[in-house]
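In the laboratory, one determines a bound structure by crystallizing the protein with its ligand and collecting diffraction data. In a computational setting the workflow is compressed into a single prediction: the sequence and the ligand go in, and a structural description comes out. We illustrate the idea with iron/sulfur cluster.
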Amino acid sequence: MKTYYNPEDLKKFGKIGEFQKSMADKFFDYYGEVFQEGALTAREKSLIALAVAHAIQCPYCIDAYTVDTMEKGCDEEQMMEAVHVAAAIRGGASLVHSTQMMNKVKEISM
Amino acid sequence: MKSLKAQQHPLSKIEYELEVLDTPIKGISFADKLANSNLFPLSPTQIDIFQINMGKMCNQVCKHCHVDAGPDRKEIMTRETMQLILEVIKKGGIKTVDLTGGAPEMNPEFRWFIEEIRKISSEVHIIVRCNLTIILANPKYHDLPEFYKKHHIEVVSSLPYFTAVKTDSQRGDGVFDKSIKALKMLNEVGYGAEGTGLQLNLVYNPAGAFLPASQEGLELEFKKRLKNSYDITFNALYTITNLPISRFLEYLLRSENYDSYMEKLLDAYNPVAAANVMCRNTISVGWDGYLYDCDFNQMLELKVASPTSQHIADWNKKSLLEREIIVKQHCFGCTAGAGSSCGGATA
Ligand code: SF4
Ligand code: SF4
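The predicted complex, in structure-token form:
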């Protein structure tokens, strides 16, 4: 069955430079540096990436950062907590906009 | 749970296991990779370490065990074989004796053997790979911490994670709680405490088809968690990669993770780790006295390629130093990422 997403395509990520090399090179250099140990540990960065992957709902990133967080020594509980952070921010982002709705309601109501 | 041997599982047949491991990954063999790193044929640098398999008997039946150990395994080393090993230790040159199994403590000659090594030398470094739960398995083992301390033994113990769920999923129900109790008993006699010189090192290995985390970062995390939750201290954490042998191989094949796991190991090949593989300064002795390049080759029954010195009774250091180390696809487990050995990362 043909689908838009194919797990095998994840392995081809590094080959996007085939169509535009210089930008891809810059991107991957940057990407590599972002995930180095820094003020945040590589482990913390991996958990952030896992949470963001869920927020943007990218199946490739979810796949990659599930493995990566496990290979950084995280367990299921920590990973699920990271996803809850993403969910809380997503849910919160919707809900906080309700203040706009509430403002408008009040503006046009007697 | 039974051992693969007791289940008469196809993978308990070495020929079948070797057939799986003889197939190159993406057309590439471990020997090819070594050749690219100018390391083929792989040769020993020295013989500093004796890793001795005291037997396949164990009180646990861990899902990933490369020894296929368990209570149903009866193969254990005899006193006669140990005598032959002592003769070699007497000749000098062996710096470390690393006792493994199964649960080495279940061999009735275990204590005698250590006492005899200590009679020869107080200097030889002795390591016991203790699975922790053995200390609580029977009252006759409760004094093991004192025994280790008396003979100044380094204790190396597996604890796949600092939570019960992950530990028990790999090592069996209730193993985590018992391991914590045993670690407390070791701490009580001074193991893992600063200034005592009594080394207590833990081993982490992934509970599944993925690579281990960085040793440094995970050690900090383990230290923090074990101290805060259980008031347990230890010296170092060794991260070890699971090699595709025996029960871990069975898991990989059954869960259809074998190909992707092998590709992962291949992609993570690190030439620095390859130069530092443990077989280059170790000889592994089987329960029946045969000699191997490492504990993994032992389980695959690949005796050293040194035809005149394949058994401890025929010990010939010169010929062993001139041998070629036997490598197959399982060796990719020793060279992935930061490398893996019985002492943790190598690169
Ligand atoms: S991994 Fe160690 S403790 Fe577990 S069954 Fe094998 S020998 Fe026993
Ligand atoms: S599996 Fe054994 S022989 Fe192969 S590289 Fe590792 S230690 Fe050496």
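The domain at 41-108 of chain A is CATH 1.20.1290.10 (AhpD-like). Keep in mind that any predicted model is a hypothesis to be tested, not a measurement.
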